[in-house]
Amino acid sequence: MCAESRSLIVVVADEPELLKIITEQLTTAGFSVQSYAPGIPAERFLHDNVASLLLIDLTSPDPSGSDLYCTLEQQGLNVPILFITGNSLAEERLKKIKRGAADGLSKPLNYPDLLTRIHAMLHQAKVKAATPITPKPVPAPFNLRGAQIDPGLGEILFSNGTRHKIGRKEIGILASLNAHRGVVITRKELLQAVWGMHADLQSRSLDQYIVKIRRMYARQGLTLDCLKTVHGVGYLFAPPPFS
Predict the structure, then answer these.
(1) Parallel, antiparallel, or unpaired for β 234-237 and 184-186?
(2) Within its chain, how far is the Cα of 97 from the centroid?
C-alpha cells in the first residue's frame, strides 16, 4: 500500500523510543513524517505547514499533547487526528476534548493497524474535500497585487511572466478578498464563500490556504503584507489604489 502522494504526518509523543519507531514505520510506508515531543515546536510547525494527519500520544503524564490539540482547535484546526490511547488518563483526556474512542488507537500499537487507520482517515478526508459544493458563477479575471488571476482558466499570471495553475480554493479566496477591498471579511463569510454554506466554521484550512497564497506571491518577489489578520474576526485586504 503506497502513501497518498507523500502525505505529511505530524507525530507528537514524549517517549523517544515510541517516537522513533512510529517515525520509522511511517517513513517506510512512504509517508513524510515530522516528529516532535509535545510543546511549542509542533505548534509552530503546524502553524506554517499543511499537515495531512496529526498523531498525538495522550497516554503521557505530560498534558502537552492534549493542550496542543486544544490550542490548534481554537485556531480552527481542520486536520484528521488520531490519538494514541491505552490508559485511563488518555481516555479521560479524550472525554475532556470531546473526542470519542473512534479517534483513538490503543497501546501497545499494532503498526499494520496503525497504517490501515491512517490510510482510511486520509481517504475519508480526501473524499470529503472532493465533495462538490453548489456551483457558482465563475468570476471574471482580475488583478491583485502584481498578478492577474483568471478563474476560468484556473491560472495566475505574475507581472514577471511566470504563470501557475491554481486550485479553486485559492481562486475563491483571492476573488473574495478582491471583492472586499478595504473592508473586513469575517472568517464565516470567507469560509462559506469558498467552501459553501455548510463549511466547518472551526476549520483551519482557510489559514493554511492563506499561508500557501502568501508563499506563492513571495516566491515571485511580491508581498501580501496589505492582507491583515483581524484576530477573532477575519481578514482585512487593504491594498493601495490600483494594485
Answers:
(1) antiparallel
(2) 19
Distances (CA, A) of 139 to 19, 61, 133, 153, 162: 47, 52, 16, 11, 21
Q: What is the dihedral of CA 76, 82, 88, 92, to 10 degrees?
A: 20
What DSSP designation does 103 have?
A: G
Residue 133: phi and psi, rounded to 5, are: -105, 175
Is residue 23 within 8 Å of residue 8, measured between CB atoms?
no
140-176 as b/e: b if 16+ CB within 10 A: eeeebbbbebbbeeebbbbeeeeeeebeebbbbbbbb
Query: Is it the case that residue 46 has pLDDT exceeding 90?
Result: no
Q: Are 117 and 91 in contact (CB under 8 A)?
A: no
| Mean per-residue pLDDT of the chain | 82
Give 186: exposed, middle or buried? Use CB within 10 Å, 0-12, 13-18, 19+: middle
pLDDT tens string 165-211:
998 889 999 999 999 999 999 988 898 888 876 666 677 788 899 99
Phi, psi of 86 (to 5 degrees): 130, 0
Tell me if residue 54 falls in helix, strand or coil.
strand
* pLDDT one-digit tens code per residue, 77-107: 667 888 888 777 667 777 766 665 457 888 8
Q: What domains are defined for the chain?
A: 8-130 (3.40.50.2300), 142-237 (1.10.10.10)
What pLDDT, on a 0 to 100 scale, did the predictor assign at position 164?
92
